[in-house]
Amino acid sequence: xxxxxxxxxxxxxxxxxxxxxxxxxxxxxxxxxxxxxxxxxxxxxxxxxxxxxxxxxxxxxxxxxxxxxxxxxxxxxxxxxxxxxxxxxxxxxxxxxxxxxxxxxxxxxxxxxxxxxxxxxxxxxx
Length: 126
Description:
By secondary structure, this protein is of the alpha+beta class. It contains three helices and five strands; from the N terminus they run αβαββαββ.
C-alpha cells in the first residue's frame, strides 16, 4: 500500500463536537469531507529524461486535467478533485487503468480513497 512520507503527514481531525454547517464546511468535515487517493509510480530506468517529461506531460494533460483532478507529488503523490469536492472510485479506476496501459511504467500502485485533509481518526482517545 502507498504510504505518505512522515514529513507530510496530515493532522488529526478536530475533536468531535457539535458545529455549525458553516464551520464544518471550513474545516472540510462531516458532509463536506473531501477524499482523494495516494498514487505511487515507478518509471522504467531505461526511459530517457525526455521520455519521462513526456510521460508526466501526458499524465497531466490526458488524465488529470480533463477529469478536473489535481495531482501533487512526483513518483509518490496524491490525487484529489481540483477545487472543492471529492475524487470518486471512477477517478481511481481511470488513473489505475491509464497507468497500467502506459508503456514505460514499471510499477503503479493506486491506494484507496481517503480523507484528503486529515489523518484517520484514532479509535480510542486517551
